[in-house]
Records
---
Amino acid sequence: RAFVHGENDGFAAFAAANPRVACRSELGRGKHPVVRGVYVWGEPKVYDCKNRTAGDVLGMAEELRDSSGRKMTRFEKPVVSERPSIQGPDRGGGGR
């Protein structure tokens, strides 16, 4: 509620700073507050905001804004290139 009703760093400021994102707030009686992101490419993502501060809710809204909405897929097999690197195989040392 503090995020929605906040004046300087609340919902209205987030909506004004992000004109390419459609933002709206609804009052749902008897329900937990949620942040919902609906994407063109995928299914919606929903974050529960119960017992969260206004800063936490703002972080959730920014995370939804920055993500694409697509599900992350894990590769089952290691990726093998048809053309190996001319610098040699990667040994995974991380140093230079």
Note: The chain has a mean pLDDT of 79.
---
Amino acid sequence: ARSCAALLHAQSTRLATRKMDAIKLAIVMKVIGRTGSRGQVTQVRVKFLDDQNRQIMRNVKGPVREGDILTLMESEREARRLR
């Protein structure tokens, strides 16, 4: 029988592998503008590195400029248009 520690390690390794599959890399194509109540969020258009035809809008917190590569933990959700 496997020890409890070995089972936990195997389970966490599977979870980490699943999370790594979900991570996507995307390059910032265009900075659209600032949003948020204090302008702390930048809205950008990104293109996925693994699927060059796919572009979405995302909100980014912190400094960002065109050409930056973002690591997206979740790649299905798209930001609403800036008003």
Note: The longest strand covers residues 24-35.
